[in-house]
TrEMBL record:
InterPro entries in the cross-refs: FAD-bd, FAD/NAD-bd_sf, FAD_aromatic-hydroxylase
Transmembrane segments: none
FAD-binding domain segment(s): 5-314
Top-level taxon in the UniProt lineage: Eukaryota
Keyword annotations: FAD, Flavoprotein, Oxidoreductase
Protein name per Swiss-Prot or TrEMBL: FAD-binding domain-containing protein
One function term, GO molecular function aspect: FAD binding
Keyword Amino-acid biosynthesis: no
Keyword Flavoprotein tagged: yes
SUPFAM superfamilies reported for this sequence: FAD/NAD(P)-binding domain (SSF51905)
Amino acid sequence: MPPQKILISGAGIAGSVTAYWLGLAGFNVTVVERNPELRTAGQGIDMGGAAVEIIKKMGLEEIIRAKTTGELGLSFVDENDKAFATFDVGDKNTDIGFTSDIEIMRGDLCNIFYTAANTFPNVTFLFNTSITSLHQSPSSVTITTSTGKEETYDMLIAADGFRSATRRLILNNPNSEAFIQSQNCWVAYFSIPREPQDHPRSRGYNAIGGRFIMIRPNDEKLSSGYLIVSKDEPSLRAVQRAGMQAQKAVLAELFADAGWEAMRVIREMKDTEDFYLQDVARIELGAQGWSKGRCAMVGDAAYCSFTGTGTTLAILGGYMLAGEILQRPEEPEVAFRAYEDKLAGYVKKAQSAPKGGPQLFVPQTRLGVWLIRTALWLVYRSGITRWIGGYKMPKFDLPDYPFDARVE
């Protein structure tokens, strides 16, 4: 029989990685993306564990490493920009440290995966297109797109983020907030002109009121600015669906008296075009599972994480989902269950975080700021970075799927 037709919603990291492996296996893949072009805005991200093995399998490791930010580590600083604790890039074999061995801008990584998937003649990307309705039968999935076109596919995969519109259609749940577990924390990230002190390490600064500012290396001309608010801030929630300028205005007011380089970051934020604000959340679909009939979910749409493991989970999830589909192309429901069964335990560990989440590391009070600074200083001085360094991904035994044995 001819190769099956698979539709993927979302051209981000999870969607493009899934498309790559399905394309390599010989499936006919269409990827729809609601934005008019590949969304290249976003923060610096890292990856570890099994994700590094996967990019090696894709032949992309050298390309990805060539695009890394060159960040050597993270320094925590006080109001006078004096570093009191510095944690450099961890040993790649132990994942120790706050900075991963592979630190790259989200847009660069998205473009690399998109380009790799788009080289297959059986993979097609359609931009400015989204799914508006779907209907499942025992043998197919029929969808209608925002262009008014109706198409039938053998399978549908939602890879369109933690507020996935496709997930709502698959689960027939109109509530856009269903399954989203807010962590009462907000993060804004954007590019700012680079200054000499911005390289080669990131710098992080705690201010009272649950505020945190970070400046990270990006490239020779730009740095990445981060403004973090670790509380359920009504003023931010009020502009969550508003435009960029309204969100920037609220953040400028919230950080006006934060100290350190706050005024510089606010000033440069006002002119940036790659600004993005999001509330930090976790997705747990629970008993609902990651699939329904001939439809499955991958990446943030199924298991968004706020522990810094989201990129790794997206890459691993795309590989595993494509691999299980390859194993059972005529039985998608069985393939989807196998994908979840093999990955769910790992995802649960990767999503785990200390009780209190972001509020533990970005405290509200002057005493809280003093305590977290003291704790970081003690850890730095003692040399026991391994106990509180960046999140260490649990080990995962990566299956070796026969993707080269193309579907006929």
